[in-house]
Structure formats: structure tokens, C-alpha cells
Write a structure and sequence with these properties.
The protein is globular and about 75 Å long. Helices cover 55% and strands 11% of the residues. By secondary structure, it is of the alpha+beta class.
Length: 238
């Protein structure tokens, strides 16, 4: 079963499941975002989603975290059916920073919409349902970290997000690095505001985007091609 949990120090979420859960989610992300030539002006957002898919794929391959999880096989069931079986399954997991995963949820709204337009019967597409389930799990995890009134506001904003077409994805690096530098309590207190900030593309984002566009103009580069000149730490206090 796919699960999303807050990390101990509120830096992000832990995406967990068995091999098949994670492999299925990874394939669904690839299915919905399409190949690199399909949706122009969404290259930056597609790249960010591929980064999360990369973590999920490596988690499924055992390159990230591995943990035993109780599978419901009690001693009573073993005796009842007269066989020997383990009482734990192996789950794999990987962590993703809160700003990164929240932006992924917003960006997936666009990719879901675009993908639905390509299908004759989108309501019967299993990958679309899996993506919506993934989005709902992330927001449900967020629900456990913020007051109810703030959560209802967040739900409303995430249901009415503007398009991420030509989004300045460098802004997510900016938010990620700020979040990493915060203490646990500050992360917890700031999380609702970060969620809304990403969902509504507020004045801070618009000012940041204008700076990126200014940098892109002389070289005639696309907005996603401008490098964010800051490095992530090797270790994160998850």
C-alpha cells in the first residue's frame, strides 16, 4: 500500500510502499507527463517531476530506505491455515522536500488536464486515477501537520491552481533551500504558508520569475534553462 508520511523533522515527506506500489506510481508519472517533446512550455515542470520519479524508482530498487512492515499475518492465521509465513513485508521509501512535493502536486494538475484532453475515455485511464490518489495522499499528509482552518484554505487553493506553463521552477529550489536551513519548529510553522505560496503564485513568486526572465532574455534562453546558482547540502536533517 502506497503511503505518504511526514519526516521526523518536518523537512519533507517519505513516500513508502512495496516494490509494486512504487513501480506503479513511477510508471504513472511517466505516463501522464508524456515524452520530452509532447508538452512545450512545461519542460521545467516535467523535469521536476522526473526528479521525484527518479527517487521513487531508486527506492523501489532498494537504493534508498528499506524497512519491514507488519502484513497482518498473525500466529492465529498461520495455525488456522497450517503454514509458515513471514509476518512482515519489505517496504521501500524515499524522502522528498515539502516545497518540492507540493509543487509536484500543483504541476500534476496541469499534466492531468493535458493528458485527459488526449484521451477519448479519460475516466477509465488507471494511471490518471493513481496520480489523483497520490496527490490526495500528499494533501492528506499535509492535513496532519496544519490546523483545520488553514487546511481547508489550502484545499481550496490547490483545487484552483493557476497553470504552471513556463513556471520559474528555480523558485522551488529557492524554497527548498530555505526550508532545509530552518529548524524543525520553524518548518512546521512555515509549512501552511509555503503550501499556499506555491499554489497561488503570489507576489514573491512573480517578482522572482521576473528576475529569471531578465536573466534569460540576453541569451535568448527558455525560462527553464536558467541555472539556479546554489547547491544542496549532501545531508538533510529529515
Amino acid at each position: 500500500m502506497l503511503t505518504i508520511q511526514n519526516t521526523p523533522n518536518h523537512a519533507g515527506v517519505k513516500i513508502s510502499g512495496d516494490y509494486f506500489d512504487l513501480d506503479e506510481l513511477n510508471k504513472a508519472i511517466y505516463h501522464v507527463i508524456g515524452d520530452e517533446n509532447k508538452y512545450h512550455n512545461y519542460t521545467g515542470s516535467r523535469t521536476r517531476l522526473l526528479g521525484i520519479a527518479y527517487e521513487i524508482r531508486h527506492a523501489a530498487q532498494g537504493d534508498r530506505n528499506i524497512e519491514p512492515v507488519f502484513n497482518g499475518m498473525t500466529e492465529h492465521i498461520k495455525k488456522q491455515h497450517r503454514f509458515i509465513a513471514p509476518d512482515k513485508n519489505i517496504y521501500f521509501s524515499a524522502e522528498v522536500l515539502w516545497p518540492e512535493i507540493l509543487y509536484a502536486i500543483v504541476a500534476l494538475n496541469d499534466f492531468v488536464r493535458l493528458h485527459r484532453e488526449d484521451l477519448e475515455f479519460p475516466d477509465w485511464d488507471p494511471e490518471l486515477h493513481l496520480i489523483r490518489h497520490f496527490q490526495a495522499l500528499v494533501l492528506d499528509c499535509l492535513h496532519g501537520q496544519v490546523p483545520e482552518e488553514q487546511y481547508q484554505t489550502i484545499l481550496k487553493t490547490f483545487s484552483q491552481t493557476p497553470t504552471v506553463k513556463d513556471y520559474a521552477v528555480q523558485y522551488i529550489d529557492f524554497l527548498n533551500l530555505k526550508f532545509i536551513d530552518m529548524a524543525k519548529q520553524q518548518r512546521e510553522n512555515t509549512l501552511p504558508a509555503v503550501a499556499v505560496k506555491i499554489a497561488v503564485q503570489d507576489n514573491d513568486y512573480q517578482a522572482f520569475r521576473q528576475q529569471v526572465l531578465t536573466a534569460a532574455t540576453p541569451a535568448k534562453k527558455a525560462i527553464h534553462e536558467i541555472q539556479f546558482k546554489a547547491e544542496y547540502p549532501e545531508q538533510i536533517d529529515w
